[in-house]
Amino acid sequence: MAKTSKKIRVTLVRSLYGRGKTHLACVRGLGLRRMHHTVEVENTPAVRGMINKVSYLLSYEEI
Questions:
Q1: Is residue 17 predicted with pLDDT exceeding 60?
Q2: Within 13 Å and on the Cβ side, how many CA atoms surround 12?
Q3: Which of 18, 51, 55, 60 supports an S-S bond with 10, CB 3.0-4.6 Å?
């Protein structure tokens, strides 16, 4: 029986201006390009780590 993988909907709600290189890399790694851009990503430990690192810039919900 195949387990359905959960997804997370992530939206960039704060500006990237003045942020560090590692935080910019996390946001780009999630696939976010500009403010108010929304993407759906797989719920994996790597993605969770990126979301936790820049959580102050994002809004997110499990779907």
A1: yes
A2: 19
A3: 60
Over residues 17-39, mean pLDDT = 96
Boundaries of domain holding 48: 7-62
Structure confidence by residue, pLDDT tens digits, 47-61: 999 999 999 999 999
Contacts 24+ apart (CB under 8 A), 32-41: 32/58, 36/11, 36/12, 37/11, 37/12, 38/9, 38/10, 38/11, 39/9, 39/10, 40/7, 40/8, 40/9, 40/10, 41/7, 41/8, 41/10
CATH number at 30 reads 3.30.1390.20
